[in-house]
Amino acid sequence: MARIGVFVCWCGSNIASTVDVKAVAKAAASFPGVAHATDYKYMCSDPGQNLIRETIESEHLTGLVVAACSPRMHEPTFRRLALETGMNPYLVEMANIREHCSWVHEDKGEATAKAIETVRMLVEKVKRNSPLEEIRVPVTKKALVIGGGVAGIQAGLDIVTAGIPVIMVERSPSIGGHMAQLDETFPTLDCSQCILTPKMVELSQHRLVTLHTFSEIDEVSGFVGNFKVKIRKKARTVDHDKCTGCGICMEKCPAKVSSEFDRGLSDRKAIYVPFPQAIPNKPVIDRSSCIWFTKGRCGVCKKLCPAEAIDFEEKDVIVEEQVGAIVVATGYDLIDRGLYGEYGHGKIKDVIDGLQFERMLSASGPTGGKIVRPSDGATPKTVVFVQCVGSRDDSKGIPYCSRICCMYTAKHAMLYKHRVKDGKAYIFYIDVRAGGKGYEEFVKRAVDEDRVVYLRGRVSRIFEKNGTVFVKGSDTLSGQQVEIRADLVVLATAVTSSHGSRELAQRLRIGFDQYGFFTEAHPKLRPVETTTPGIYLAGACQAPKDIPDTVSQASAAASKVIGLLSSDELIREPLVARVDEKVCIACFMCESTCPYGAIEHVTWKDPETRKEKEVARVNPGICEGCGACLPVCRPKALDLMGFSDEQIYGEINALSDLVKVIHDE
Amino acid sequence: MSDRLRIVGFLCNWCSYAGADLAGTTRLKHRAEVRIVRVPCSGRIDPVFILKAYERGADAVIVGGCHPGDCHYVSGNLNARRRFLVIRKLLEFIGIEPDRFEVTWCSAAEGEKWAKVVNEVCDRVEALGPFEAYKAITPPVRGPVKEVTTGEE
After folding, report:
1. Last residue of a domain, one of A496, A512, A544
2. Which of A389, A567, B67, B108 is most buried, most CB within 10 Å of its CB?
């Protein structure tokens, strides 16, 4: 027999001035199953909580309804109180008679009637509550970082500092990402490689780091604290245990293709390391351009390798790892060159993109840091920079701002002027967005000190006439059409999501937007979490961002991982769905509705008939307790703890009679 | 408040219930006919809950969820939205005026919207009068008005 206690709070005058709290307590005392009902000035205060504590014991209560503020406010308070007295915390419900009643109604009779009915509903609910135990899930103290750019490196380093092992998976043959391609970074002009490579080395040599380069994520299963990951280590064709990195193979390899790292400004061999400071600094064979693999002959590298490290028979290897948390840091790409036909990108040799210019600036780049025209190697005397190529352009399907171009274009123009003293730099822009520490000052420096000419307007066409490149655009400030004879044109092409990001998101079961950027759980308050617990975001895979923001987010993601993995078990609220195996017909409608992939197929043996059948099982480690699976369950085998069908029907059935408050006066 | 009218609101915990809370914290006065049942997500609302509410004498039902696309549980409200479309048709078919059923997407920041929806639905249902279409075929589940005296002795 239920013995429910009803505690009606006055909340000072917040409730008591509009709701006749004594009438509510009096009415509640007469509800079936209510053993005790009382009112008090402040239930959440120490004396109020003591009153509840003592009454639970003296009246042997089996459940509580606290009629007070919103459960979103004080439910945790009263559940904790119940726990302290030895009552299961899930036998406590709150009737919201403040936010939903006393504060929004003026007539005391109406408000009191509503409060009484609300209490009656919650009494009927709590009579049907069952004691629930917290779900404890063991945690694997290891983290996976996907992507070895500056975001992944920062997150990885921060995580290992806390003593948590990190597995890093990088798609390309080396870690470093886009930052390794950059020359100097805005707004301080410090050398990108000088600040990045020490971090790359530190990470790769850390005893807690396992590095899988030239590898991809094949499959992710499991849930927060307990992910199982299958990593495909692509065949390098070079045994890195034997390889000493001497480089003879790369010297002698006859197959040349254009270098991805230098964005086509130089060639690399079929057996290659992407750049001199690469980690690991041992080559891989690109099978699509290797003569052995395309034509079945050559094998020069194998013949010459003193360590006998070349293995043409090598196959992809799948490595399985268990991790507790995942940081996704897969970075970005730039738009396809073909997208801007009118700018001649990819057709006119002297029209390049910002990242190509960056390689040109780099001392270790294809030109050794000299700015030259790709067509003839001459020093360009006039360089035109075009911003927002693709970005903020609805017609190209990229309405967003790429966020880094204003700053790097200012930097490019500045560095050009430093190196070619008599050169002229023009920048076509829509707006200059220089929000950031020292950013506005930096742009001003480009204009004032380095005499970079900013032209406000868009470029309509870039074309070649008799070997000369012309840039045609408008200067909206002077209202004139301008045509500039350019020796070199640098396009600030839009940042896009990294190729393959959508497929990866599906594998990880995280959200992504229409552009392929991963979505955070909340744009303001949970900016590094995804909606899948245990998976976090860092860097430009979430949205275009610059290095300072990327590093900040990476450290934030790392701190989330460290927090998550700091305890041995995860404690989760037991408000999850459960399957009655006896009733389940294995239709798996629930599986297609569950947004979290919490439904599993299991074989279940009926203890009575000893027959086996396939049934659905809700993994309590994954289930978030939304209850979306319940309405689609045809045999009603599913129920949701804390919001069970019986509890909700209890509330609805309590609507039997209307209450009217009669004033005696 | 009419002595006769009662409206049941099924509100999702994260948006609509919080929106109704906000109406409270900002003291937006609105009508008192709605009795609120808190559910985790609008996707949790079983169509039978709604039918049951009418059976228990509700004159109207309001369901509230997060705005489509903003569901706390990723996609629960999208399931709900499809379901509610069908329920509206079903209600029409079984003789419950569609005006007695309201679906509202109300965020935790839209206390004002919640208060407005409550007032609108109350006015509309008042014009329609109590829901009595089923009186002839089922005995009324809702009992007579129960009188309660004030608590002061």
Report:
1. A496
2. A389
Question: Could you please report the per-residue DSSP string of A597-642?
Answer: --EEEEEEE-TTT--EEEEEEE-TTT-----THHHH-TT--EEETT
Q: Does B152 touch chain A (CB under 8 A)?
A: yes
Same domain, A415 and A365: yes
List chain A residues with CB under 8 Å of B141: 656
Residue A117 has pLDDT above 90, yes or no: yes
Mind listing the pLDDT tens digit for each residue in A534-588? 999 999 999 999 999 999 999 999 999 999 999 999 888 999 999 999 999 999 9
- Identify whether residues A590 and A614 lie together within a single domain: yes
C-alpha B78/C-alpha B50 separation (Å) is 18
Residues of chain A found within 8 Å of residue B142, distances taken between Cβ atoms = 655-658
Q: Same structural domain for residues A352 and A477? A: yes
pLDDT tens for A219-232 read 998 888 999 999 99
Identify from A74, A634, A653, A658 which residue to disrupt to test chain B contact, counting B C-beta atoms within 10 A and taking the largest count: A658
The answer to whether the CB atoms of A22 and B150 lie below 8 A apart is yes
Residue tagged 């999208």 (tokens)? B78
Under DSSP, is residue A126 helix (H, G, I), strand (E, B) or coil? helix
Q: Which residues of A touch B74 (CB under 8 A)?
A: 511, 531, 595-596
Is A510 found in the same domain as A467? no
CATH number at residue A20: 3.40.50
Q: Looking at beta carbons, which residues of chain B come within 8 Å of A662?
A: 147-150
Split into its structural domains, chain A has a count of 5
pLDDT over 90 (residue A661): no
Interchain CB distance below 8 Å, B24 and A531: no
In a domain, A600, yes or no: yes
Model pLDDT for residues A83-115, shown as the tens digit of each residue: 999 999 999 999 999 999 999 999 999 999 999
B139 close to A (CB below 8 A) = no
Q: Which of residues 58-77 of B touch A (CB under 8 A)?
A: 58, 72-76
Nearest CA in chain A to B9: A652
Tell me, yes or no, whether A322 and A173 share the same domain.
yes
Domain containing residue A419: CATH number: 3.50.50.60
Q: What is the mean pLDDT of residues A420-426?
A: 96
| One domain for residues A240 and A297 | yes
* Residue A663, domain member (yes or no): no
* B46/A630 Cβ within 8 A: yes
In angstroms, the CA A518 to CA A515 distance is: 9
Let me know whether A170 and A295 are in one domain.
no
8 Å CB contact between B44 and A579: no
* CA of residue A454 relative to chain centroid, distance: 36
**Structural domain harbouring A90:** 4-132
Q: Of A519, A548, A572, which one is at a domain's C-terminal end?
A: A572
**Cβ-based neighbours of A312, under 8 Å, separated by 6 or more:** A237, A292, A293, A299, A302
The CA-to-CA distance between both ends of chain A, in Å, stands at: 38
Read off the pLDDT of residues B13-41 as tens digits, 9 standing for 90 and up: 999 999 999 999 999 999 999 999 999 99
Mutation target to probe the B interface, by most B beta carbons within 10 A, among A90, A118, A518, A655 is: A655
Query: Does the pLDDT value for residue A385 go beyond 50?
Result: yes
Q: Specify whether A352 is located in the same domain as A459.
A: yes
Report chain B's mean pLDDT, rounded to a whole number: 89
A195 in any annotated domain: yes
CB A530 within 8 Å of CB A146? no
DSSP secondary structure letter of residue A248 = H
Which chain B residue is nearest to residue A623, measuring alpha carbons? B73
The interface residues of chain A toward chain B in range 531-590, judged by CB-CB distance below 8 A, are 531, 575
